[in-house]
Amino acid sequence: MPSRTLFLIATRALRPQRKNCIQCSRATRQLHLSPRWQTDGVFKELTEMRVRTPWIEALRKKEEEGIDPTQRSNTPATPSNRDLTPKRMSDSYHRVVIPLAQDPWLLDNYLNANGQIRLGTIFMDLDALSGVIAYNHTGESVTTVTAAVDRITINHPLKEICDLELSGQVTFATGRSSMEISIQVAKAPEQGASVQKEDVLMTCAFTMVSLDPNTKKPVAICPVKIETDEGKRLFAAGEKNYNIKKARAKTGLRKQTPNDEESDLIHAMWLRQLDYHDPNNPLRKPPHTHYMSSTTLSSSQIMQPQYRNRHNFMIFGGYLLKTSFELAFCCAAAFSHSRPTFLSLDPSTFENPVPVGSVLYLKATVAYTESVVDGASDAQSAGVENGEKREDRGGTRVQIRIDSKVRDIEHGSMKPTGQFNYTFFVDRDISVMPQTYEEFMIWVDARRRAERVRGSIDGGAVEGVGEGKKGKADGRRITE
Q1: Among 143-147, 262-266, 424-428, 462-466, whose mean pLDDT is lowest?
Q2: Cβ atoms of 449 and 369 closer than 8 Å
Q3: Euclidean distance between CA atoms 313 and 302, whole angstroms
Q4: In the predicted model, what is the mean pLDDT of residues 32-54?
Q5: Which residues are within 8 A (CB) of 68 and not within 5 positions of it... i.e. 6 or more apart?
Q6: pLDDT (0 to 100) of residue 272
Q7: Cα–Cα distance for residue pair 176/160, rounded to 1 Å
Q8: Among candidates 382, 476, 475, which has minimal Cα distance to 429?
Q9: pLDDT of res. 455
Q10: pLDDT at res. 41
Q11: Which residue has better confidence, 71 or 313?
Q12: Whole-number Å distance between alpha carbons of 180 and 202
């Protein structure tokens, strides 16, 4: 656009507005010399709480002091005598209303090409909100990071564009370094009213860990003080989640071999693959079965400062959730040749921080599939449990595993940054089959995860986090 045109537009935008313009019903977009502070869908209020220093100022301060904040120091910054008095759950409570139905330009940041709500942008807001809640509990003297997303479940898909209320609080903390934060996204209620159960879009739980800003080592935080019966219920659910995660860590595939049932399934799939390649056997791989190696999808991108956390030199976890979700969505679509419907983000972990300026590598793999029969699930084990012939099951749940790693820009070092697990529903009968030992372990790990959370998707609560809906798509929903 010519510079003179831009000048005229800016001049007109700065002129005093006529009184009758206030009554104009048509939505207009004003041109400001200082645009609204937003970051690719993250709500302004949450962005301002997350990013407090302009990048250029943070960069200059780093250069002047000659200290790299991303590196560990031997000198602790956290006061040894800070107050660790137990806090009420309500002390950390925070609520934000995103006025999607009132502001079409704000809504513009949250819609996909089909006019549906982009869940990736909601995930960014959820992580940003969990950070606000965590600092309400810990104070500013520590560095708090996202350690895990225990679960994000769709409860009641949206049927219309509406204002969204995001709210949550710390529900489990014993005085060590970690805390569990429970958050819900719901249709914003009328003034003075409360959220109804059927208006809850999704529920989730984040595990946050507090570190010393210099040493990067875990530091103690205030425990939660329980005062009500509801508080007891929430704390008990968080304690149950904590104990389950500890137990799973001891029985993971890095600690123990597959059990007898899993070993039998692996052997059966291996034998079936031999049959597929035996020229004397008429059996061939059916068209609905795909080898796991053919399902992978990868991406790489440089990490820019616009997605930094409040400590300026690391990428905030919500951006990683958004990026991994959208790659998982693309992987499920490419695998099924259909538009997938998101069901849940299953327990996922953040291992190492992602520095600003580094290169993030993501790899998506179809890790596991299971057929759906009238809303109930049935693990078909890639077509070997009940014979090769399969009828139309009315759709398939597809679990996508995202493995992430980060390298410095010179590519001299590499670290894993986390694993993310997403479950989608596709309206097709389709299955995945592993071939190598590594792929079999990915399949077994995903199968275990599917068995643990199947009850949540089928309508029951899981691990005190929330309630799920059956795994079939609803054509009227406006969420991805």
Answers
A1: 462-466
A2: no
A3: 14
A4: 60
A5: 62, 313
A6: 92
A7: 42
A8: 382
A9: 53
A10: 52
A11: 313
A12: 17
Q: Round to whole Å and give the CA distance between 125 and 45.
A: 10
Quick one: which of 302, 315, 304, 303 has its CA closest to 50?
A: 315
Angle of helix 317-336 versus helix 119-138 axis, rounded to 10: 150
What is each CA distance from 464 to 41, 148, 241, in whole angstroms? 29, 16, 8
Query: In the structure, what pLDDT confidence band is assigned to residue 80 with cuts at 50, 70 and 90?
Result: confident
Q: CA dist 208 to 50, 143, 154, 170, 330, Å?
A: 15, 10, 22, 10, 29
User: pLDDT band at 8, cuts 50/70/90?
Assistant: very low
Instruction: Please report the pLDDT score of residue 373 as a whole number.
Output: 64
Contact assessment for residue 355 and residue 313, using Cβ atoms and an 8 Å cutoff: yes
For β-strands 376-378 and 359-373, DSSP reports them as antiparallel
Q: What would the mean pLDDT of 139-166 be, rounded to a whole number? A: 89
Residues of the chain with pLDDT > 90, as a percent, come to 51
d(CA 381, CA 446): 11
Cα–Cα dist 120/167, whole Å: 18
- CA atoms of 338 and 341, how far apart (whole Å): 10
End-to-end CA distance of the chain: give it in Å, rounded.
Answer: 35
Total Cβ atoms within 10 A of residue 352: 12
* pLDDT over 80 at 252, yes or no: yes
- pLDDT at residue 253, as a whole number: 87
15-27 as b/e, with b when 16 or more CB fall inside 10 Å? eeeeeeeeeeeee
Find the radius of gyration of the CA atoms of the chain: 24
Nearest to 338 by CA among 267, 244, 211, 425: 425
* Total-model pTM: 0.82
d(CA 285, CA 83): 64
